[in-house]
Amino acid sequence: MSGAGALLVAGTTSDAGKSVLTAGICRWLSRQGVKVAPFKAQNMSLNSMVTADGAEIGRAQYMQAQAARTEPKAIMNPVLLKPGSDRRSQVVLLGRPIAEVDALEYGAHKERLRAVVAESLAELRAEYDVVICEGAGSPAEINLRAGDLANMGLARAADLPVIVVGDIDRGGVFASLFGTVALLEPADQALVAGFVINKFRGAAELLAPGLDQLQALTGRPTLGVLPWRLGLYLDSEDTLALDAPRPDARAPYGDQTLRIAVVRFPRISNFTDLDALACEPGVVVRYAASPGDLADADLVVLPGTRATVADLAWLRETGMADEITRRAAEERPVLGICGGFQMLARRIDDDVESATGGAEGLGLLPASVFFADDKTLGRPNGRGYGEPVTAYEIHHGIVDVEGGEPFLDGCRLGAVYGTVWHGAMENDGFRRGFLADIARRAGRDFTPAPDVSFAALREQTLDALGDLVEEHLDTGALWRLIENGAPAGLPVVPPGGAPETSLGTTTDK
């Protein structure tokens, strides 16, 4: 391929399938011998990962780099926003936090961020044959268009052809695709070259008339229809993915099934930690929002959170804190990861994340926590259950362990475990040792499978995404867009509603 090509994958909504389609295109191109990289200019997500050189990026971009078979880098996700409340987010720029802002304060950073986004994309395009960009949310969020960094603002600045993916499983996909284009100004529409429909299940012949009519209305083809595949929610950015159906355990739900309940905090982060547990045959992982959801669990997990003190208050308000305390007293297993570990401590002093001064923890582990101004980002390693463990850490909270038995970097007291290490369960030997320990403590007749490789299963899923692209998209049309950009002369789609001559007038007298 001559020169550097690029393509932007936009979506009608959040969780429409942008991340997995981007990953699938990256894997498909990598198979063709193309040196390809993913890119997301601005990402709002609480699922993040640490690169080899200690930079924090969106977990989805890390996964997409794996799909592309290239080393993840901070420039693949130059701007990461991590919400801490409904109004404020931490701004992470090129892998390092630079500010805590609300929506209005964020505007003051836009020009600086826009320059970094442009430089990052230019650097990737110079290094790689192809860059597959992922949009954010929807490009038709017209209230945000003026300051847009990740959708049509990026496409216009970098002259990127755009394909728009819509999730037919939600319903209303034709209206969503048509409306997305129609709401864009003409110069933005000129870059939208086609559509992809995601999560289709049904009779293709019933869908075909709609595809023909969509092309007649917009002048743009549908480049493919991706069939429904359960279990392709790799490293999602959105908690919306937690509501999607997930595969049942691959063993009967009975005495040999290990039941794990994960507390679904309002600001839950890095819930990808639990994917490795869910990959085990005979393990059921579900998300819990009330005390009753914890009742029959063999293990309760308090995962990471971007709002430790606020989510601890929520845990108490829901009554789940009392249930967790009772479990600990009965020697029933509880695991805290990062923010969840911090909640299990005796005291949390926080003038950084919540600026509340802190709170009393649940007191189930002999530890205390204080929040440092500087964020800890790292890729630690150690041992557990006699097995090597590699992990990653992302936190302001510093845990001072004051007793108990060692558990990774944290501690264990009775059946309560705590660590700030994310990703530990992805280590197969450690995961099997931990699950065997939990099964023994829970009195469950469960033995982990000896041959499950989390890394191999991830590769299989990435290959499955590549297969979907190769088998169900018009890859020739994708190549042409990547090499040549959006076709000239794409028609302008007028917005629906009143005729143009009467727009902005009134008939009231």
From TrEMBL:
<dbReference type="InterPro" id="IPR047045">
    <property type="entry name" value="CobQ_N"/>
</dbReference>
<feature type="domain" description="CobQ/CobB/MinD/ParA nucleotide binding">
    <location>
        <begin position="8"/>
        <end position="232"/>
    </location>
</feature>
<dbReference type="GO" id="GO:0015420">
    <property type="term" value="F:ABC-type vitamin B12 transporter activity"/>
</dbReference>
<dbReference type="GO" id="GO:0003824">
    <property type="term" value="F:catalytic activity"/>
</dbReference>
<keyword id="KW-0169">Cobalamin biosynthesis</keyword>
<dbReference type="InterPro" id="IPR011698">
    <property type="entry name" value="GATase_3"/>
</dbReference>
<dbReference type="InterPro" id="IPR002586">
    <property type="entry name" value="CobQ/CobB/MinD/ParA_Nub-bd_dom"/>
</dbReference>
<feature type="active site">
    <location>
        <position position="422"/>
    </location>
</feature>
<comment type="function">
    <text>Catalyzes amidations at positions B, D, E, and G on adenosylcobyrinic A,C-diamide. NH(2) groups are provided by glutamine, and one molecule of ATP is hydrogenolyzed for each amidation.</text>
</comment>
<feature type="domain" description="CobB/CobQ-like glutamine amidotransferase">
    <location>
        <begin position="259"/>
        <end position="428"/>
    </location>
</feature>
<feature type="region of interest" description="Disordered">
    <location>
        <begin position="489"/>
        <end position="509"/>
    </location>
</feature>
<protein>
    <recommendedName>
        <fullName>Cobyric acid synthase</fullName>
    </recommendedName>
</protein>
<feature type="active site" description="Nucleophile">
    <location>
        <position position="338"/>
    </location>
</feature>
<dbReference type="InterPro" id="IPR029062">
    <property type="entry name" value="Class_I_gatase-like"/>
</dbReference>
<comment type="pathway">
    <text>Cofactor biosynthesis; adenosylcobalamin biosynthesis.</text>
</comment>
<dbReference type="Pfam" id="PF07685">
    <property type="entry name" value="GATase_3"/>
</dbReference>
<keyword id="KW-0315">Glutamine amidotransferase</keyword>
<comment type="similarity">
    <text>Belongs to the CobB/CobQ family. CobQ subfamily.</text>
</comment>
<dbReference type="GO" id="GO:0009236">
    <property type="term" value="P:cobalamin biosynthetic process"/>
</dbReference>
<dbReference type="InterPro" id="IPR033949">
    <property type="entry name" value="CobQ_GATase1"/>
</dbReference>
<dbReference type="Pfam" id="PF01656">
    <property type="entry name" value="CbiA"/>
</dbReference>
<dbReference type="InterPro" id="IPR027417">
    <property type="entry name" value="P-loop_NTPase"/>
</dbReference>
<dbReference type="InterPro" id="IPR004459">
    <property type="entry name" value="CobQ_synth"/>
</dbReference>
